[in-house]
Amino acid sequence: MNTPASYFDHQYAHAADPWHLSERWYDRRKYNITVAALPRPRYLRAFEPGCSVGVLTRLLAAHCAGLLSTDRIPSAVEAATQRTANLDHVTVRQMTVPEQWPEGSFDLIVLSELLYYFDSTARTRLIEQSVGSLEEGCHLVTVHWNHPVAEHTCTGRDIAEHLDTVPELKRLARYDDSDFTLTVHEHNGDAAPVLSPARAEGLA
Ligand SMILES: C[S@@+](CC[C@H](N)C(=O)[O-])C[C@H]1O[C@@H](n2cnc3c(N)ncnc32)[C@H](O)[C@@H]1O
Question: Terminus of the chain with fewer CB atoms < 10 Å: N or C?
Answer without folding.
Answer: N
